[in-house]
Amino acid sequence: MPVEQNEFRSAARHDLHSGGAIAILSGRPLLPNSGIPLNLDWVREVRVNTSAVERRAQSQVARRTVKKEWQAAWLLRAITCMDLTTLSGDDTDERVRRLCAKARHPIQQEIERQLGIEELQIKVAAVCVYHAFVETALQALEGSGVHVAAVSTGFPAGLSPLAERVNEIRRSVEAGAHEIDVVITRAHVFGGRWQALYDEVAAFKQACGSKPMKVILGTGDLMTLRNVARASVVAMMAGADFIKTSTGKEPRNATLPVGLVMIRAIREYAQETGMAVGFKPAGGIRTAKQSIDWLAMIKEELGLSWVRAEMFRFGASGLLGDIERQLEHHATGRYSAEYRHPMA
User: Fold this and answer.
1) What is the average pLDDT score of the chain?
2) Where do the domains of the chain lie, and which CATH numbers do they carry?
């Protein structure tokens, strides 16, 4: 086997298996988030220096990225942190089954063979679908270890009556969904109705039971970074297991400045409470370079223990194709056409 492949296999193994089983911040092991009572003083005191956030985000993009085998290893990590997603009005059972087949085997076997990574058994973290397709996805993914995440609570607007949204969560849990993605009422943020937002998310959490809950803030609708930070803090206080940027349906979805604000809210919450909350950027992340920018920012701001599927996810539908092309280029030195790497 060529030296380059030996080096790549070593890098891939190290990156995929580092981090441990418990999130750690500044050497301190953290517990899963169980929520805390709403602290309005904390919420009111939240401030964001927008220009500083934008400079920090821009510096992330401007840096020279990792190269060669280490780049390939980080791209493999990105795949293992993906929630492959189909949330379209024209979704069908067959489309969901095809997406699940891709989730089981996200990299073509020939590329795996060329990279020498067959034994790593790379697969995505979850497939994210509407409630109507939970059963189809569960059947298609049976025995794979890939989770089924159901979007709920009147996705994407979140404007149906609260009782209906809570019942929707319960139906998805009863159907066997492993994870639930919920969406908040953005008007609570605009009006500064923090108790209402807290009570809403807490009700969602109760309905989820033991299933991990990802709280979608709809950051493209929230207008200011301060609103994003405040909504993040309240969602975490109410018991969110993950905070997620977007539904993917807003005009503006996941951006690095928004992500940085949410990540630092997670860090402050962990420092204050000793509890860890995951992060999921979703919408608009389409290139391998973008995935490495996000992974690097998470690693620098929160540490390596967050750079794994238990604590970090990409909400993505188009990202995997570009990553697969980059991995093939690493293996062969040639770029393939996009149509050779279909999602579903």
Assistant:
1) 91
2) 3-334 (3.20.20.70)
